[in-house]
């Protein structure tokens, strides 16, 4: 049996972290490029890194929101496909997992 209260607390904390991080990245992305041409390549590289990081964070936010929904519904940690319990280690690695390891493949 999964301790969903602890999981929800952990996911909510992670959600706050991600939201703050996305806001920070957004702030950096809107900064103008360096006036010095030699710095602009670096700036653009940083931008690309920030954007892919932000996209990953947003994907994780979606997963966490879905997981919190499932916790509310009492469906968290139960495989959508076969109804078996999803292994805790799998949920640890993938909080948004909706299928057990056997059905995921
Ligand atoms: Zn399954």
The CATH class, by name, is Mainly Alpha
Output mean pLDDT.
90
- What's the domain count? 1
Q: Which blocks of ≥5 consecutive residues have pLDDT under 50?
A: none
Radius of gyration: 18 Å
Which ligands appear in the coordinates? zinc ion
Q: What does this entry show, briefly?
A:
Helix content is 70%, strand content 0%. The protein is mainly α and 105 residues long.
Describe the structure.
The radius of gyration is 18 Å and the shape is elongated. The longest helix has 37 residues, at 37-73. With 105 residues, it is mainly α. The protein has a single domain (4-100), classed as Up-down Bundle (Four Helix Bundle (Hemerythrin (Met), subunit A)). The chain has four helices and no strands. Helix 1 packs antiparallel against helix 2 (37-73). It binds zinc ion. The site of zinc ion has 8 residues, from helix 4.
């Amino acid at each position: 049996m999964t301790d969903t209260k602890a999981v929800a607390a952990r996911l909510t904390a992670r959600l706050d972290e991600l939201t703050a991080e996305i806001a920070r990245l957004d702030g950096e992305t809107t900064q103008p490029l360096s006036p010095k041409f030699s710095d602009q390549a670096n700036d653009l590289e940083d931008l690309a890194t920030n954007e892919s990081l932000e996209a990953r964070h947003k994907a994780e936010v979606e997963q966490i929101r879905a997981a919190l929904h499932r916790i509310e519904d009492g469906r968290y940690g139960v495989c959508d496909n076969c109804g078996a319990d999803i292994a805790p280690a799998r949920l640890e690695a993938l909080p948004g997992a909706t299928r057990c390891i056997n059905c995921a493949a």
